[in-house]
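Entry for the shared binder. Reason: the reviewer on the internal report wants the predicted structure included alongside the sequence.
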Amino acid sequence: MRMVEGKGAVLRKGVRWIVLLAALIGAAIYLNSALFSAWVAGGPPNPIPRAWAHRAFSHACTAGGLVLLGVAGFRWLGNVRRMSPLTIALGVGAITLFVIPQIREFLLIDACLDSGGRWAEREFQCHR
């Protein structure tokens, strides 16, 4: 005997896959940008290699965060009534990856200013 699923269950399955695929596509775009930025930071001569390196780091973290967020959303939409500890850990990991670049930038700027230097935003470098 075949079980017939309701429209809500079918819709939820579709949304699960859309959320996962959207997150993976976004992660692929950010990973591509991270790889390009890393290449520019260490490849051809340019006046702001540290800014490109920070951009590469930031976009790599964003790509990782999107993967974790997509998997967490996929798992959560599979069972909305009960969120497993793994799903919560994936969500917390995603949020952590999203904020690490901002925290790193804040700490670098703070250390520069505390040592009496002047922070050059464009160059992502401290001038002392």
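Summary line for the report: Residues 7-101 form one domain.
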